[in-house]
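User: I want to check something. If I give you two sequences, will you return the structure for each one separately, not as a complex?

Assistant: Yes, each is folded on its own. Here is the first sequence with its structure:
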Amino acid sequence: MSRTLILAAAIALGLGLAAGAQAQTTPTPATTPVKHNAASETGRDVAQQKRIEQGLQSGQLGTGEARKLEAGEARIDKTEQRDLRNGSLSASERAQIQRQQNRESKAIYGDKHNATTGNPDSLKSNLEQANVQRNINQESRLHNGVTHGSLTNRELGRAEGGEAHVDRMESHRDTLRNTARVQRADNRDSRRIHRAKHNARKRH
């Protein structure tokens, strides 16, 4: 082999090794994790409350059944509060919330299709219906805030904590005194939601 060919082969080999070394040392661009929008979770919260309200209005749910279901809603809201505390939901946290919501969905279906019925025109049912209607309004406002970006995940988590407190109160006996307490708690939550949705913090 001529000296010229040997020199050309050496140069080509050197260039190939250099390119390989550069490829190995070039850092892979970091991917920014996508922050999960909790709209699917809040949307289901609204839907579950609407199903409870419909059951009370149709007489498929008694007030005792509705109170037990509100206790289940409180557990879901509490989980959302805890998991959103750091501003994001991991895949495992989302899966846990979905499992809880699935159990609640089955409980609503079971209670609406069992032999127990309620009187939608009774005072107790009307009180419970009013409570659930306020829940729908509050959860709808949270869902709207998440969907349109006026609520951050942390703000949503704090608000869900307030909803958990209200739902637990609603799981107690539906008396006039307890209804008044629920209304006061709902009013406080309503003001907090309004402030959170109209402050300078936005979801990015």
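And separately, the second sequence with its own structure:
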Amino acid sequence: MRKFTLTLILAGTIYLGNAQTVNPRPLTMAEYTKAQTFSIGDLDKDTYVKFENVYILDRYEGRKPYFITGSDGLKKRIDLYKLVAKEGMQELGTMVFYTNEKGKIYKTLVPNFTADGKVWEKYFEDIDNINKIETNFILKLSYVLSKEFSFMQYKLLNGGKDMKEESATYGNDICFPGTEVVAMANGGKKLLKDVMPGDEVVTVDPATKQATTVKVKELTTHEPKNYALTKLVLVSAHDELTAYGHNVLLNSKVLQATPNHPMMTKQGNKKIGEVEIGQDVLCFNEQTGKYEPFTVLIKNEHVGGNQKVYNIVADGGSTFMMNGVMVMQK
């Protein structure tokens, strides 16, 4: 299970510092469950709704909805409401109404940072379950939360480790899982584990953003272990505010590697395990056909299960494109 203690302590400090303005109190598990039954009749018009004369849903900061279109061309709508206990007007969390392209509404309640760890565990379990049905639900939710919450609150929410450190294998192996996708010559793609000596792969000059090809000399393979992996979710977003809400075109990339693999970010060279939320990495944007900076939206560290990991040795260049993300050669 996730480790919440440090996150909650730090975040609680943030809320205590702002107690006069946000007046939060811990959300109970019973209240979390009850809130799942709350509905808004008209998301366009209803901005302040009471339930049982005990709770209130108040449109978050009077914000307009987000309309997010992903690379699949499907448009989703996200509306945020503060959940407030009427007695004392105490904030309990943020209610999210997510409407897909078919009109189906998914609800989730983001607890405030004073909530008990078990409530947070239930929240993460619930959004994971929705994500299994509604592809990229967590990605789109995370984008909106990153825009609306303070940076520190969002970073605490998404920057924690998702693993038991004692069960993961760390070491000097600088590699990727075999299921990462390598950009090949002539626009082709290949799973890393299937790359062969003599294959031609794409390398990009970080300064000029010009792509060329180099030949693979060797595919290095490391024995199966339960390796620790760092996972980055990177996004490129075009956000236009209209009279109806935020129209967002969202393109995303996901990359996994052992925590010590070298990366080049706009903020400098780092190991992937040291890359931070909000930093920029060069990626290939299929919508524009160009190599452009994508921003790290989500980062976590987890165990990948017992598996081999791989790395390419090439006869030139300094980078590879892995899952559309520029990574440094070892």
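Because they were folded independently, the notes below concern the second chain alone. The radius of gyration is 22 Å. Residues 229 and 258 are 5 Å apart (CA to CA).
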